[in-house]
Design goal:
- With about 550 residues, the chain is an all-beta fold.
- About 0% of the residues lie in helices and about 55% in strands.
- It contains no helices and 45 strands.
- Strand 17 (about 215-220) and strand 18 (about 225-230) form a beta hairpin.
């Protein structure tokens, strides 16, 4: 069929044609603020240390350049709006390296456990700081746990109801020491030491094989690089490790459900590979390497969370070479988008300098990142929000015989996210159809009845937009643009509406293959799995 202009008209009731879109990484936006901390920060933890309902930060600084000076833990007290004020600093042993927040003495107040690397085989201890509930701590209380301690993890490994510690040793013979907790904040050596590969790195605690007992996943840096799984017996002991090869020198390991099957999967940051590896878990506790994704140089720590609120697990990865965090948004099937960099104050050189939490209490997960040389903690607030509902009821794509002679029109409704107060009079409005993005600047709309309208030029295009306030946070909308170029559009077509930092998106799946030849030819069949280019005739 050869036509000068043909409109493709699709409606919401054709369910296969309209499905939730995959959120691109650029649709999560962070705003950063930096807070002073002592140099050489190697770990950060989150907890409500003063019991005011707002999250606080604990930052462990190693002072590796001066082994005669004890490391510190700096407390930053949160205000609940994403800002922090300095609390007190606490001596925390020689060369602090790993930090974990947990209630170690069962008083309902978060405490701190810090792994001390030590110097010349001295000072390799676990330092315990017990919280007082007002933002201050008592201690330090120290417990030997091997040599050159590099990480500490918590869990009830012997099922007695008390928190125990798993501590990584980075000197021969390299392995994991288990300290048994008494429930009062004290710990004793169990004599259980588990050999792992060379240069162990921080890992993950979880029940990987579903037997009700806690297991350990430990990153191994080299000879060979990979992940080692130690299955718990339930009495505080573990079986010999099972090794999984992961190339690129593993620097850290984190767990999460990346493919939505309810089983823990693992992600490793690979410092020499400049990538992260996804290992998908099976219900028997085994893992298989699924995919590698490039990130910024020398990837170090990773945070696992749903940053774009689409119900799928995402990743944020620090770099040991540049002051950026790589953000990878998950698809929910174990795969991820290409990474997008977010700038921070300093670069992080080890495996646990990033955490995700809701610091400004807006329901979206933020980030805190330590900068090794900068003496800075960067708090990155997640300032975007996805509409809680976004429905397209009418879509027209009108392809002209030549470039810049196309048009589109769509209408529907959306409901803003809880706690948001959108206003087209105040915020930019951006419309994206495929690769074509057009922005109506803030202040362009005029109030009309219970809604807002605007007609004008965006570049060479003529555009009309209208919003109707339906109450209870819901809006109806209609968008039309003419004299645009849709030649770069592929099938399926993502359609996105943004107001300020909030957005909704759907994917238009046109049945059959679209080929532009002085118009549009539509043939039968369902939408292809991969995008099919819509090409203009020459």
């Amino acid at each position: 069929m050869n036509l000068s202009r043909v409109s493709v008209l699709l409606a919401l009731f054709v369910l296969v044609c309209l499905a939730p879109g995959v959120i691109a990484a650029g649709q999560v936006c962070f705003e950063g603020k930096d807070y002073p901390a002592a140099p050489e920060a190697l770990a950060v933890g989150v907890g409500d240390f003063n019991r005011d309902g707002d999250l606080d930060l604990a930052v462990a600084t190693g002072l590796w350049s001066d082994s005669s000076t004890p490391g510190l833990v700096s407390i930053l007290l949160g205000s609940g709006d994403g800002t922090f004020c300095a609390g007190l600093d606490y001596a925390a042993g020689i060369r602090t390296h790993g930090l974990v927040v947990a209630d170690l003495n069962e008083d309902g107040i978060p405490d701190l456990a810090i792994a001390n690397y030590g110097h010349d085989y001295q000072g390799s201890v676990v330092t315990i700081l017990l919280g007082n509930g007002d933002g201050t701590f008592r201690g330090p209380f120290q417990y030997p746990a091997g040599t050159n301690l590099i990480f500490v993890m918590t869990g009830d490994f012997n099922a007695d109801g008390h928190v125990d510690l798993a501590v990584g040793n980075n000197n021969w013979p390299q392995g994991v020491t288990i300290l048994q907790g008494a429930g009062d904040g004290s710990f004793r050596a169990t004599g259980h030491y588990y050999l792992v590969g060379v240069n162990p790195r921080g890992g993950e605690v979880g029940d990987f094989n579903g037997d009700g007992r806690l297991d350990l996943a430990v990153g191994v840096y080299q000879w060979p690089s990979g992940v080692e799984i130690l299955f718990g017996v339930g009495n505080g002991t573990f079986r010999p490790p099972v090794h999984y090869d992961v190339p690129g020198n593993v620097q850290s390991v984190r767990g999460g459900d990346f493919n939505g099957d309810g089983v823990t999967d693992l992600v490793t940051t690979n410092i020499d590979g400049a990538d992260v590896s996804i290992l998908l878990g099976e219900r028997d506790g085994s893992f298989s390497l699924y995919a590698n994704y490039p990130v910024l140089q020398m990837p170090s720590g990773a945070a696992v969370a749903d940053f774009d609120q689409d119900g799928r697990t995402d990743l944020a990865v620090t770099s040991g070479a540049v002051p950026y965090v790589s953000l990878l948004l998950g698809h929910g099937d174990g795969s991820f988008d290409e990474s997008t960099p977010c700038r921070v104050a300093g670069f992080s050189i080890d495996g646990n300098p990033i955490v995700a939490a809701d610091f400004d209490e807006d329901g979206r997960l933020d980030l805190a990142v330590t900068g090794w040389h900068a003496g800075i903690v960067s708090v990155l607030l997640n300032v975007c929000a996805q509409f809680s509902a976004f429905n397209l009821q009418h879509v027209e794509l009108d392809f002209g015989a030549q470039a810049s002679a196309d048009a589109y029109k769509f209408a529907g409704d959306f409901t803003q996210a809880a706690g948001r107060h959108l206003n087209p009079l105040r915020d930019d409005v951006t419309v994206t159809v495929g690769p074509l993005q057009m922005t109506i600047p803030a202040g362009s709309f005029v109030a009309q009845g219970s809604g807002f309208t605007w007609t004008g030029k965006v570049g060479n295009a003529t555009m009309t937009a209208a919003f109707a306030d339906l109450g209870a946070g819901a809006f109806g909308f209609g968008i039309e643009a003419r004299a645009v170029d849709l030649g770069g559009v592929t099938n399926p077509v993502p359609i996105r509406l943004s107001i300020g930092r909030d957005w909704g998106e759907a994917t238009l799946r046109v049945p059959g293959r679209l080929v532009l030849d002085q118009g549009v030819t539509v043939s039968g069949g369902l939408a292809p799995a991969a995008p099919v280019p819509i090409q203009r005739a020459r």
